[in-house]
Request: fold
Amino acid sequence: MTKIKKLLAGKSRGFGLIEALIAMAILGAISGAFLNSLSTAYKADAIADERTSAESLARSEFEYIKDSRYYEAYGFSYEIPVPPGTAPPWDATHIDLADAYPGYSVEVTGQQLIPATHTPYSGPDMGIQQITVEVYYQDELVLSSSTYKILR
Reply:
C-alpha cells in the first residue's frame, strides 16, 4: 500500500494550463474533422438518392414509351406532371408522377431520324425515332438519356 502512495504522491501536481489547452485543441480538431466528414457523407447520400430517383423515372418512361404504339408524327414532346392539354397524344391518361417523386418533373421528346445516317430531320416519318427523356429535380436537370423506337 505504501508503494502505491509513493507512486501517486510524487512531484506531479496534475495538468497545467498549457497541457489542458493543447488537449482541448487536439480534441477540437478531431471533432471538426469528424463533423465535416458526416456533412460530406450526408450530401453524398442526398445526391445519390436524387440520381437514383431520376434514373428510376427515366426507366419507367422508356418502358412506357416502349409499350405504347408508334406515334407517326413529325415529332412529339410532353411533360410530366402535365400542363393542361399536353399529355402524350396516344394516351391522355398518362398525366402524373407517383406521389413518391415530389419535386421531380420529366420531359420526353421524340425526333424523326433518317434511318441510314441517324440524323434528325422534320420530313415524313421513315420509321425510326430518337426518344430523349430528361428528368428534372426542382427545375434543375439531373439526368438526360436517349434511346430509339422503330416502327414494327
